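Quick one: structure for this chain?
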Amino acid sequence: MRKPADSSVDLHPILAERWSSRAYDPAATIGAEDLTAILEAGRWAPSASNGQPWRFMLAHRGDKAFTTMVSTMVGFNQIWAPNSIVLIAVLARMTNDDGSPRATALYDVGLAAAMMTVEGHHRGYNFHQMSGFDHAAFSAAFGLTSDLAPVAILAVGKQVGAEAIENEAVRERELAGRERLPLTELVIQTH
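Got it. Here's what it folds into:
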């Protein structure tokens, strides 16, 4: 299924065609080279003062970490996410080496996740980025230190048709159109 962005000007096809599906092939796999390239894209993202506050936690379908990540998800995410090939938890190191707050950590981590999403789309995978999980339960389940904050879980999969989704409410969300606020509501003009 395609849902190209309805933008005011043409965008690069990778950006225009990218959207977050919930319909994944439960038998799909990912090769080591593709997964490494996706992680490398995140590794090479820009960051303030080259601080690189991102950390990536991988969980492959069928392993204990995958089951644990899914168990921390809320709502619809627990229904469709188990068909993902891999889940990538994106964590932010919230402090600098001297213990001071890292003001740009979340921004930098968002850039890394975006770069991984673009690389993954380029390689034929669909990414669905989720904040819909219990962050405290996730931290406890994986024994995260207080300076590591779970920011998002990226579900990586091979997209299939919406008819593969058995849950009617999830299928409706899959079929719904893509919407964004217009630029006139997003751009703050300065004079």
